[in-house]
Amino acid sequence: MTAVRIYFNNIWLALSSIAIGMRITMSHLFVKSVTTQYPDVKLKMPERARNRLYVNIDDCIGCDQCSMACPVDCITIETIKSTPDQDLGTTSTGQKKRLHVPVFDIDIAKCCYCGLCVPPCPTECIVMTDVYEFSEFDRKNLIYNFSVMMPQDIEQARAKLKKAEEEAAAKKAAAAAAAAAAKAAAPPAAPPADKPAGAPPSQQPSTPASDTPGQPGKS
Ligand code: SF4
Ligand code: SF4
Questions:
Q1: 34 in helix, strand or coil?
Q2: What pTM was estimated for this model as a whole?
Q3: How remote is the CA of residue 161 from the centroid of ligand 2, in Å?
Q4: pLDDT, tens digit, for every residue of 133-171?
Q5: Inside any domain, residue 159
Q6: What residues pair up with 106 in beta bridges, in sequence order?
């Protein structure tokens, strides 16, 4: 392509792109403009919009799956095991709850709204809502605490678990001591009888492979 041809080609490209841009501008020029009077009027968010997280703590089993999936570590969960005599009930999806959840915090200031914490939840109790107006003046207010356990309930659950663990350890130690005592009290085992001198070996001498029926022998 000659230099003159390139020159005129570039002019054509510039004019045509201006014309395309202006056509879009002109198409909007005579359309009635609509201004949404936010915040008095709010647009409806799409059905699958990812905004503020919500946790239905009644359905949380404290499995930590959401926290492990979070790429920015903004979910903090602490749990306390229940003791065998405690019944924590079941979730709405029918799963038995075995852990107290004294801490379930989400630092929403760190959250990037990726939604990765939602799919792994076995009880579907962590969800993304369409709430997008939750700005705060103080960052501390953006740490959401979902646990509903009171400090005295947490202390009680910890003390109960500690007691149950101590009792289980004492039971185990007593069982081990009883087993050791029973072993020490048992009479010593009789020594094995001596074999007579020259007694034949209990096994027959091995037969060479070539003599075994059905086995290929040496020629
Ligand atoms: S949406 Fe993403 S960043 Fe926010 S808590 Fe869930 S996994 Fe973490
Ligand atoms: S994945 Fe669900 S059930 Fe498990 S800790 Fe997170 S919110 Fe609770």
A1: coil
A2: 0.70
A3: 22
A4: 999 999 999 999 999 999 999 999 999 999 999 999 999
A5: no
A6: 75, 144
Dist. CA 132–CA 141, nearest whole Å = 15
| Residue 40 lies inside a defined structural domain of this protein | no
Mutation choice for ligand 2 from 121, 124, 144, CB with most ligand atoms inside 8 A:
121
- How many domains would you assign to the chain? 1
Task: Examine residue 67 and state whether it is found in any structural domain, yes or no.
Answer: yes
CA distance 56 to 77: 14
CATH of the domain at 89: 3.30.70.3270
Alpha-helix residue ranges (DSSP H) falling in 95-150 = none
Short-list 81, 86, 85, 87, CA closest to 62? 81
Its domain, for residue 57, covers: 53-149
Which residue's CA is the closest to the ligand 2 atom numbered 2? Answer: 121
| Closest residue by CA, ligand 1 atom 4 | 111
Helix (H, G, I), strand (E, B) or coil at 13: helix
